Amino acid sequence: MIQDYEWLLSPWGLGVLGLCIGSFLNVAVHRLPLMLERQWRLEACAQLGDGADLQKAGFAKAQADRLAADAEAFHDHLERQPALGIARPRSRCPHCGHAIAWHENLPLIGWLRLGGRCAGCKARISIRYPLVELGTGALFAALGWRFGAQPLALLWCGFGATLLALALIDWDTTLLPDSINQPLLWAGLIAALAGWTLPLDKALIGALVGYLSLWSVYWLFKLATGKEGMGYGDFKLLAALGAWLGWQMVLPIVLGASLIGAIVGIAMKLNSALREGRYVPFGPFLAGGGLVVLFAGSERVLGWLGWA
What we know:
By secondary structure, this protein is mainly α. The protein has helices spanning 11-48, 51-56, 61-79, 109-113, 128-147, 151-173, 178-193, 200-225, 232-245, 250-270, 283-296, 298-305. Helix 9 (232-245) packs parallel to helix 11. The longest helix is centred in the N-terminal third of the chain and has 38 residues, at 11-48.
């Protein structure tokens, strides 16, 4: 049966699938942070709406009552906002509100047919949308070439798409959501348990080494400087990469990510793209390092380091 549909798992077939997944990633990368921010505001309002709890925190009763009333009013305002999810509401132009028709939303083709402009108001549509679709298609095709026309290629395509989503979200918002990070980690452990990737012991040790390595760097830096050099999402992402690629690949991933991140950061600084007080998120470079290691293969990477 697999042989009958082998062409679907070829680089060309996976490339077309990647274009479609890239279109979905564009939506998810934009909406997921907004969904998280709305949820955080609701949770904050629920906490601030408890006047008794505010008094325990040291507020005078009158002040606590005012804060609680304002929090409840803001909570009601948020609850009245239109529902927001990955699939709903329907995509619209942010400038004029034009509802995007299905044929306008076709991966790559829709953007090209529209000439990169909204069909309603003719406002420019960011070139990032087709680039993400093309990038995802190219990534899927490359993974099809790397693993051959077999179901295992689909597993690694899911891995690659998840890394791409995390990299884009982190670049835009400096967030690495647990709602993506944690499933990626568990998927890596389950894939190892099923015998699809690594031996389970290597995946478990990889997750442990991945998390603790950056956790240790974080605390050493904080104790030395009093500042936070990275977020906890980076620990979790490296733990997931360790679960998928093994503990021996953790150091090469970090070294590669650090080198690329330093080069990009210096280039942005020289071009005034990096404002004072801002920093370049580390997640995209960890994701890139993971993909480089995946394509290179563990034996070649270990050879580069002289560990083979």
